[in-house]
Amino acid sequence: MIGKLEGLCRSNSTLRAVTMTVLMISDLDITFSILFAVTVINLEGLWKYGACVHGIGILTYSAGVLWFGPQQKYKVVSRIKDMMMKNPELFKSTVPPKLNTPVSVTDPIGTGRDKTQFQHLQNDEEGVEKMKLGMTHYGIPHVFHFYEIQISRNMVEKEHGLPFIRIARFGFSSELPPQDLACILNANTLYTVCTGTWQLVYGAIVISVLGEVKIEVILPLAVSAVSFLLSVANVGLDFSAVLTEIEKEKMIKEKIKAESDTSEEEQKLQAKRRFEEQRSRIEAEFSGIGTDKQDTLKYAKRSEALDNAENRWQLEEAEIDRKAMERLENALNSNRQKMKQLKDIERGKVTKNLRRTRETALVEHEQKMKPLRDSLQKIEENLNQKINELDVGGLSAEEYDKKMQEITAESDTKKRTVEERMRKVNEDFGG
Fold it and tell me: What's the predicted TM-score (pTM) here?
């Protein structure tokens, strides 16, 4: 169920449709609740004082949206400091100088001029930024993201909770960040708790006891009921955590893509330069072609050589793109695996999972490396076979050198591809 929910939440069209629906229901709920309060005030006797409860609910909602909700995001600092003391194994550094050593609250957040220790960070915007930098410095940014996602389950900003302001702010967005939708859902849940539930109960009493079956009573109850169901779904399916996790994954993807774009561009420029150099050599080799039969054969050979060179260039560019996508996929899968392990630790499943990891890691590594080693051996055997098949006596020195370069260049390209894959496998297994 959660997997299908994550799949739907990754669609921009789904996010926009859900956002518009939630905004309309939430603001309708607030509007009709005011209508309901006016109806209650006009009742006779003590029933009219139910509007006071409604007013207290509105004040409570306002306090949550305007103060407590916006402050919630800063609690990630104290949450991480607390876990650093209670469960230090979660905070093992993955980079020197504290490689495989837990980071403690007495450690500095970095090696620069700022020697601030983690224990001195406060629950404010500066503290959050320094905590994030510190976790990144020690090679464990995924730990910060994990606890940030946990804290975000209870987070809401002012623009997410003010009726009609939020429609003006998010109603026109064609690509709404998942985090904003999570906060809007949290605001809707807060309003349901503060006034919606009371409105449903009090409205049912008014209808059953006083027989006040009026449109100004039924409509608010119907909208509050829909809003109540939406709040239950938000809590039960953990919409906020799922949406925030998608948002963090999106940020990681953009960061990796930005870092790899420069490298890809340089590799493609090098590939193009090699193609231009090869094309120049071919043009020079077949220069001065005339119109006789011999020159016609040369023209055909030149065209074939140029086509082969261009095909090789296009294949090389396609391989660069493929490797970039593979790196991105591996990084995202690695992040998802880390997040899953952290969730398992929080649920008390760490011993079983870590034992399974230790027992199977070497086997999985060998299963992935063996076919790659076999491929390298086959490439070497194929190279030697092609060299042996060269007609040493029938080829001129220039022709022999050219053939040898072509054979070795193809072999070297294949080797680099396999060796790059082997390096990536080793990285995935911590090698």
Answer: 0.59
Classified as helix, coil or strand, 217 is helix
In this predicted model, what pLDDT tens digit does every residue of 131-151 receive, in sequence order? 999 998 898 888 888 888 778
Rounded CA gap, 46 and 368, in Å? Answer: 76
CB 91 within 8 A of CB 110: no
- State how far the alpha carbon of 317 is from the alpha carbons of 110, 134, 263, 272, 372, in Å: 39, 37, 13, 9, 22
Q: What are phi and psi of 291, to 5 degrees?
A: -120, 0
Q: Tokens 């695996």, residue?
A: 337
Q: Examine residue 108 and say whether the peptide bond preceding it is cis (omega within 30 degrees of 0).
A: no
**What local confidence, expressed as pLDDT, does residue 37 receive?**
86
Total Cβ atoms within 10 A of residue 127? 19
In contact, 159 and 187? CB cutoff 8 Å: no
Nearest-CA neighbor of 134 among 152, 113, 111?
A: 111
For residue 90, give Cα distances in angstroms to 29, 127, 180, 392.
43, 20, 29, 64
Scanning the structure block, which residue is given the tokens 């209870």?
Answer: 154
- Domain range annotation of the chain: 1-237, 261-428
Q: Which tens digit of pLDDT belongs to each residue from 325-340?
A: 777 777 777 767 776 7
Tens digits of residue pLDDT in 245-282: 777 777 777 777 766 676 777 788 888 888 888 888 88
| DSSP secondary structure code for residue 395 in this structure | S
Which residue from 224, 225, 228, 232 is spatially nearest to 31, judged by alpha carbons? 224
Q: Side-chain half-sphere of 293: how many Cα atoms within 13 Å?
A: 0
Closest CA to 215 of 337, 49, 35, 361: 35
CA distances from 41 to 37, 102, 182, 301 (A): 6, 61, 34, 95
Cβ neighbours, 10 Å, residue 37? 20
